[in-house]
Amino acid sequence: MIKAIFFDIDGTLVSFQTHTVPASTRKALQLLREKGIKVFIATGRPKSLMMEAVGDLDFDGYVTLNGAYCFTADGQDIYKGCVPQEDIERLIHYQHTHPEMPFVFVHDNTWFLTHENEAVREIAQLIHIGIPEILPIETARDKEILQIMGYFPEEKDEEIFGSVLTHCEPMRWHPLFADIIARGNSKSHGIDQILTFYGIDLRDTMAFGDGGNDIPMLKHVGLGVAMGNAAPHIQAVADYVTTSVDDDGILQALQHFHIL
């Protein structure tokens, strides 16, 4: 019996085409809660940007920043997993020798950007968000950094995670950039924190996702559903592939499994 369902936002709840949640999905979320099934967000977005996208919808809790920050609907913290300060120091020195590479730092409910380039603008347009305030990278010192976003190609991963952000790992869902979190954090780890808090068994869970950072949770939950707009390698790890976000994919899967 499904007791809890976790939803990614971009490309899953929210369409990349319309930047809105389809009406069928809104109705499905309402019906799930009326049936007593708990619904949760599981996103790479920080809290403020999550609320911009789905803040008018009711959820029971949130896994944000790819599992680095989890909290309840009433704002009670469940888990925080910060980037170690020694990694922040190495990244400050690295960025001074690679000034062409922008980084975003997320701390508390705020974020800032080291500088803006075309990749930053392209991703902002894709997921319909604003450009963060531009501040010196030294601003990241002595703060609880929950996530970093690095705008660099995958071929740079070995260099950066081998010698700079050595206690971190990338959660990449787009070739232009990576969400970067402390090693050990993931959407699946965040889900475990939520389930422990609410006393729900992992076998009674379901998740919907479409990106590379969704792979850990799709493989982890009792029933993993990939959206029809997901890439083939993401669909391959899921238990079921539904239709796309723009073709009522969430409702289709819930009806397929007779949950609604």
Describe the structure.
The relative contact order is 0.18. By secondary structure, the protein is an alpha/beta fold. It has nine helices and 14 strands. The protein has an eight-stranded mixed β-sheet. It has a six-stranded mixed β-sheet with strand order 8-7-6-9-11-10, with no helix packed on it. The chain has two domains: 4-80 and 185-256, 3-Layer(aba) Sandwich (Rossmann fold); 85-182, Hypothetical Protein, Haloacid Dehalogenase-like Hydrolase, Chain: A, domain 2. Strand 2, helix 2 (47-54) and strand 3 (61-64) form a beta-alpha-beta unit. Pfam families: Hydrolase_3. InterPro entries: Cof, HAD-like_sf, HAD-SF_hydro_IIB, HAD_sf. One of its GO terms (molecular function) is hydrolase activity.
For the secondary structure, the number of strands is 14
CATH topology of the largest domain: Rossmann fold
What is the CATH architecture term of the largest domain?
A: 3-Layer(aba) Sandwich
Q: CATH homologous superfamily of the largest domain?
A: HAD superfamily/HAD-like
Strand order of the largest sheet: 5-4-3-2-1-12-13-14
What structural class is derived from the secondary structure elements?
alpha/beta
Query: How many helices?
Result: 9
Provide keyphrases for this structure.
single chain, 260 residues, alpha/beta, Rossmann fold, Hypothetical Protein, Haloacid Dehalogenase-like Hydrolase, Chain: A, domain 2, 2 domains, 8-stranded mixed sheet, 6-stranded mixed sheet, 9 helices, 30% helix, 24% strand, globular, HAD-SF_hydro_IIB, HAD-like_sf, HAD_sf, hydrolase activity
